[in-house]
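Inputs:
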Amino acid sequence: MRRIKTSPGQYLNQLFSISKNYKRFNQRFDIFNRSMWDDSIDPKAFYVSYDITNYKPKKSEGFKHWDYALRNASWHLTDFIGERNPERVEGFTDYYTLHTQGPPQKMELPAPEECSQRIKRAAAMLGAGMTGICEIDERWIYSHNFSRQTGEAKPFDLPEHLKYAIIIITPMDYELTKTIPSAIGGSSTGIGYTTSLACANGLAQFITNLGYEAVASLNDTALSIPMAIQAGLGEYGRNGLLITPKYGPRVRISKVFTDLPLAIDQPIEFGVKQFCNSCRKCADGCPAKAIDQGKAQDSPPNISSHSGIKKWTVNAEKCFKFWVNMNTDCAICIRVCPYNKDYSKWWNRWAIKLSDSFLRKLLLKLDNWLGYGQRKKPDEWWNLDNLK
Amino acid sequence: MRRIKTSPGQYLNQLFSISKNYKRFNQRFDIFNRSMWDDSIDPKAFYVSYDITNYKPKKSEGFKHWDYALRNASWHLTDFIGERNPERVEGFTDYYTLHTQGPPQKMELPAPEECSQRIKRAAAMLGAGMTGICEIDERWIYSHNFSRQTGEAKPFDLPEHLKYAIIIITPMDYELTKTIPSAIGGSSTGIGYTTSLACANGLAQFITNLGYEAVASLNDTALSIPMAIQAGLGEYGRNGLLITPKYGPRVRISKVFTDLPLAIDQPIEFGVKQFCNSCRKCADGCPAKAIDQGKAQDSPPNISSHSGIKKWTVNAEKCFKFWVNMNTDCAICIRVCPYNKDYSKWWNRWAIKLSDSFLRKLLLKLDNWLGYGQRKKPDEWWNLDNLK
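Outputs:
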């Protein structure tokens, strides 16, 4: 793993290939928000399954009532906290507002490097798997804030004094991702959000308690993936997701914006670009054909992704249509990704190092040969040993 | 580790030594509730530190502003959810009421053994470290429900159809417990509660989604430790705490009461009684002298513990007075306990097996010799590596 050396002020342009016509993304075009106003997208069969009082699940394995019951429960705390104010959907269109007041004065601080170390220590204790810090670049902040209540999108800016973003990585349950596509597999997303909610809000309250300002955010407010790349937590993958060196693509991302003076992290490279250029497993595995077989591009397939930045981008329309037809979320592109491994095992830590070398094509063959990424029967998950 | 074979209807009396004058515990006498109405207990210096806007921390290591800032943040979600209704203190005097409605019909169920397996699988996914199931014995249910708002305690009964309790064990952060006594060490309690809150409420919502009734509870409603012993999760230790075979005493306990038909667990023995008879580390280590050096007894030191059951009982008055004087909670009896080890290491898993043999006194000497249980400097915790 190499830290990318960048010069201040220039490093975003070194790290990303951003064209001059780049525009901040309007939240109104996010596929979930679009489904609220764009008649070409009918999300009914997707959302109806989140209301267990009315939903009649299928009888097929992984899509039974028990599976939906647990998937919905995994979201419960996130929904309860996020939807308590009818005018906001905190965590999805709006940032969180559950902090209690901090002290009247800002606390004295150690050097920014020491501050960053303490923030990362606190985040790890509060449930983060990885934490990185970057300066906020307004290009990642949504240009407009969408209201699901009014259907309107209003121009949005984050206050300038919130200069830093702390990016939190929460791993998703590995065993659950093996069962995808399935309703039960969707629990790995739900619990990922719930853990992120607790961690980001806990961390924001901690910073508030130091006398500084902090705003906790999940999918709302800003694009998480480029911020995570900037904060040294991973690289873009072909599946359009963040690939981390510790959990591969099996992560949720949350963030805390703050005026606490912090030392920032340098971006990393560990061969993802080269590996994804050789590998097509996510593109081949996607039933919706939503993932491109070709090279990274700066023009997205439709209005639901931001344009003017060269990267692999999933076709959100095709992707979401598949979710709707399946009555749950999908993440086959996480399951089949050769980076989706259990890195607590030494052999997988070795493999990810070798994937960043001329051996990458051999490793890809080995991955196929060993049967990694194949779907496990969802009912097997229910019968797993309960000891962690 | 041995499962204790018990016969239905009799097994509580086989497992616990309960005298005929046993009475259900009145929540009003819990030391925290007592501090609200009993003038002999002055909790001010304890509670004031939980309001960071007014508190002026000391300058000593582990008790600085940063330490309190994080400790309070670790409690934030638990406080926010638990205190949202001014008439209830959910998780502490009252059970939780945040569930959304379930389906109109009860779902068809597999055999109780299979139901229990699925419940434990779901709990593990939602954050539980261990899960056990027992039948509810009304002797563990508080006789009276205390209201902090009115200062009154009203007779309380759990509905009879809630026949089972699912007991959830959430581990506390090992590295943090090493710093106790310290404000930062109190974060291990706060985050333990927050994880328990998410897990117990997620599990109760899951059962609700199956069409059954479920009530999530932390310290409210019933005595957690005897229920956890009954559910096969551990034994009573000299420090009055539950000693588990997976985390020792380093746990928080939460529970879900339900009418879902479940198979129950058998209690376990792994030599804790014999070991605690030989060991006095918690009693010697307690600055408040709140832990008895003698044998287990059925008469508690004061009204803040239930009587008529033979066990080691901490003197809650002395214990809490020490907390108040220190301006944070204490758990030296967890830190110094020879069962407080990292059982992900094979050598500690061996040691706990040997502690259940004639080698227990030798192990105790080895424990002292190797320096286990000594306090680490709190500032070292802030500088630990952030990789888990």
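Remarks. The first helix of chain B runs from residue 11 to 15. The two ends of chain B are 29 Å apart (CA to CA).
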